[in-house]
């Protein structure tokens, strides 16, 4: 079964043997009624056409697709999932196919889906085997449907089987003869490789590295586990690396920085036997979904930097990438790199964003105990670029500079307090939400006496010409306000509220992208005193199951019970309890402006729905599933 090594003396032996797998049968998977979809068969054809037109295909070893055997797919997927994916195209499902597709997130099926999916997985196995065996130096598998979102028992995000994960397991478990003991998976698709992460989360043989847009947890697949805090578990701890961008517009310079300061030093230490690239090209300039701007030369440089490891054994498997010209040009550039064509890389025109350095530093901090090479200080003279103008990112929001507390972000504290109290009278009412102190250190508030009191002015919030209402909460000189203003709390936000411009609407008023109703803001409009990101072993509980302002989900609390099977990824803002109160009112829209003179009326009612509180205490938890950030189906 093992292939013989390539004869060293073959003609043209100097040229690298590069596999290129293309098969029209993987174009069979398409939308059932010809509806437009970004993940369509033309993607493969566009790349294939380009490689042929440029004379690159003829310089490669061109391979046909091969079906994956069930037993190999079963190394990462459930038998039920395999059976369903393989039968979904059969007659039996003619009447239920669309309905089944709708149960998944971002999935369609047609009569060609089963065949394409099995071929995509089998094709990555095929080229990986040939590269591992030394028959090929490297290879590009032009496959679809893509794979990295597919989970053990679930198709999602245009992915049916996790092609790269199947191939990695094949090499490790089924082909000991090939001597592949350590695999580096580099996932540069613009989306988080959630499926792959889960499949190898406690496996130290596979180092999974994913760089993706995160946007504070709001970018697809919009799960907290794409954050840099997820570094693997048990024996796999340290073998999962996420680099989560905060926004789009990241390009060559940002990716090169992540390579130079995270991926390459770790790859050097890990010393993989082979590299599998989950090569989505949806972070390419011009991609309709990604919003990033890697150029073909950028991809070439990223790939070149990887060639220094694993004796250059690199297998690229196509994942996303939805601009036909961008993906064709990008794959073309990568193919030339693998073929050994000379590139001259001029230093990128753009500098990395300020946020890029902050994220890189946060990732290094999180991983430095596992990878000592990451504990060195980053060079001091880092050049940077300010974050994209708010108008480039979101239609209307504050351009307030980030007052983020970088010290706290660097994560020296391993435990958090969600709410800290200075005043026992208040804590009496809220103490039930407090985290278990045995496990979570409580920090003392150092700035409790320095709350500024703003005048109670009426402020008209006017953004981008669209006048959004709103009078500030004013004239509430109630005693409780001054009491509350003296206490600082760490307010833990999740989902879209982790996006700072959105959160700031509750404090400063206004309406960020995606909000249906403008916020009036808090009486005290001073920005949060600190920000920190935490992953906590607690389940999120919701004060209300739905609110007019945000739809499903509202204010959230953490179940005080520690449960290590649960993970909640939260962004914590240090604010006063008075601001906390005002935020709860706005989030839950317990009351609207009274219309007469624009005043906001605060009734004497609890901030938390009483029935939800009761539900919580009897059920301990509300399951998170139905209240995920709503996703746009594509
Ligand atoms: C493979 C890939 C993207 C799914 C986006 C769904 N999937 N909105 O790029
Ligand atoms: Zn993608």
Automatic annotation (TrEMBL):
Major location category of this protein: nucleus
Catalyzed chemical reaction(s): N(6)-acetyl-L-lysyl-[histone] + H2O = L-lysyl-[histone] + acetate
GO biological process: epigenetic regulation of gene expression; regulation of developmental process
Occurrences of domain Histone deacetylase (ranges): 37-337
Cofactor(s) required, per the database record: Zn(2+)
Enzyme type, top EC level: hydrolase
The protein's Enzyme Commission number: 3.5.1.98
GO molecular function: histone deacetylase activity, hydrolytic mechanism; metal ion binding
Subcellular localization, as worded in the UniProt entry: Nucleus
Pfam families: Hist_deacetyl
Entry keywords, A to Z: Chromatin regulator, Hydrolase, Metal-binding, Nucleus, Repressor, Transcription, Transcription regulation, Zinc
InterPro entries per record: HDACs, His_deacetylse_dom, His_deacetylse_dom_sf, Ureohydrolase_dom_sf
Keyword DNA-binding: no
Domain of life: Eukaryota
One GO cellular component term: cytoplasm
Family, similarity comment: Belongs to the histone deacetylase family. HD type 2 subfamily.
UniProt name for this protein: histone deacetylase
Species whose genome carries this gene: Panicum virgatum (Blackwell switchgrass)
Lineage: Eukaryota, Viridiplantae, Streptophyta, Embryophyta, Tracheophyta
């Amino acid at each position: 079964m093992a292939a013989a090594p390539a004869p060293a003396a073959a003609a043209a032996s100097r040229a690298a043997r590069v596999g290129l797998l293309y098969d029209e049968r993987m174009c069979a998977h398409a939308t059932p009624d010809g509806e437009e979809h970004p993940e369509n068969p033309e993607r493969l054809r566009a790349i294939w056409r380009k490689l042929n037109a440029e004379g690159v295909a003829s310089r490669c070893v061109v391979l046909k697709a091969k079906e994956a055997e069930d037993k190999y797919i079963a190394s990462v997927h459930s038998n039920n999932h395999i059976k369903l994916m393989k039968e979904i195209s059969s007659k039996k499902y003619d009447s239920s196919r669309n309905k089944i597709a709708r149960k998944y997130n971002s999935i369609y099926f047609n009569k060609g889906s089963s065949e394409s999916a099995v071929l995509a997985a089998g094709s990555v196995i095929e080229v990986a085997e040939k590269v591992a065996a030394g028959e090929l130096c490297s290879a590009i598998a032009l496959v679809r449907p893509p794979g990295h979102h597919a989970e053990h028992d679930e198709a999602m995000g245009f992915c049916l089987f996790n092609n790269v994960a199947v191939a990695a397991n094949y090499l490790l478990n089924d082909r000991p003869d090939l001597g592949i003991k350590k695999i580096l998976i580099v996932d540069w698709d613009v989306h988080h490789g959630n499926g792959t992460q889960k499949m190898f989360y406690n496996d130290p043989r596979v180092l999974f590295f994913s760089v993706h847009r995160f946007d504070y947890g709001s970018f697809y697949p919009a799960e907290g586990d794409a954050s840099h805090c997820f570094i693997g578990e048990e024996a796999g701890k340290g073998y999962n690396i996420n680099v989560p961008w905060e926004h789009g517009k990241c390009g060559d310079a940002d990716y090169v920085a992540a390579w130079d300061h995270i991926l390459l030093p770790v790859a050097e230490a890990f010393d993989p036997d082979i590299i599998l690239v989950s090569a989505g090209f949806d972070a390419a300039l011009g991609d309709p979904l990604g919003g990033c701007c890697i150029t073909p030369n950028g991809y070439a440089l990223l790939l070149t930097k990887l060639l220094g490891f694993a004796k250059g054994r690199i297998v690229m498997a196509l994942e996303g990438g939805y601009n036909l010209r961008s993906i064709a040009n990008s794959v073309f550039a990568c193919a030339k790199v693998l073929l050994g064509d000379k590139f001259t890389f001029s230093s990128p025109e753009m500098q990395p964003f300020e946020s890029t350095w902050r994220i890189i530093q946060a990732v290094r901090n999180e991983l430095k105990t596992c990878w000592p090479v990451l504990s060195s200080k980053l060079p001091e003279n880092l050049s940077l670029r300010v974050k994209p103008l708010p108008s480039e990112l979101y239609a209307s929001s504050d351009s307030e500079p980030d007052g983020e507390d970088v010290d706290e972000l660097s994560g020296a504290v391993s435990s958090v307090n969600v709410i800290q109290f200075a005043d026992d009278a208040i804590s009496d009412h809220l103490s039930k939400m407090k985290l278990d102190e045995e496990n979570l250190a409580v920090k003392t508030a150092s700035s409790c006496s320095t709350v500024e009191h703003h005048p109670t002015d009426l402020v008209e919030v006017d953004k981008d010409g669209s006048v959004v209402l709103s009078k500030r909460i004013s004239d509430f000189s109630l005693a409780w306000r001054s009491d509350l203003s003296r206490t600082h709390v760490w307010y833990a936000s999740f989902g879209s509220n982790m996006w700072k411009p959105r959160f700031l609407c509750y404090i400063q008023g206004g309406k960020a992208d995606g909000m249906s109703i403008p916020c009036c803001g808090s009486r005290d409009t001073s920005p949060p005193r600190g920000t920190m990101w935490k992953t906590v072993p607690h389940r999120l509980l919701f004060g209300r199951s739905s609110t007019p302002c945000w739809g499903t989900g509202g204010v959230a609390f953490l179940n005080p019970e520690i449960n290590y099977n649960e993970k909640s990824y939260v962004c914590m803002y240090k604010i006063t309890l008075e601001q906390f109160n005002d935020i709860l009112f706005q989030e839950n829209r317990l009351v609207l402006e009274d219309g007469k003179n624009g005043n906001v009326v605060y009734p004497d009612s609890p901030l938390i729905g009483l029935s939800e509180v009761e539900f919580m205490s009897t059920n301990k938890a509300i399951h998170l599933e139905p209240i995920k950030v709503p996703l746009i189906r594509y």
